[in-house]
Amino acid sequence: MDASHVHRHPVFCTVVPPHLLDKIARSEVVRRADAAQRTLEQDALLRTRRNVTTLRGIAPAAATPVSDEPRRTIYDAQHRTRLPGKKVRGEGDEAVGDATVNRAYAGLGATYELFLKGFGRHSIDDSGLALDASVHYGQDYNNAFWDGQQMVFGDGDGDIFLDFTVSIDVIGHELTHGVTQYTANLDYHGQSGALNESMSDVFGSLIKQYSLDQTAQDADWLIGAGLLGPNVSGVALRSMKAPGTAYDDDELGKDPQPATMDDYVKTSQDNGGVHINSGIPNHAFYLVATELGGKAWERAGRIWYDTLTGGELASDADFKDFARLSVAAAVARYGDGGAEHQALQKAWSAVGLG
Question: The whole model's pTM is what?
Answer without folding.
Answer: 0.93
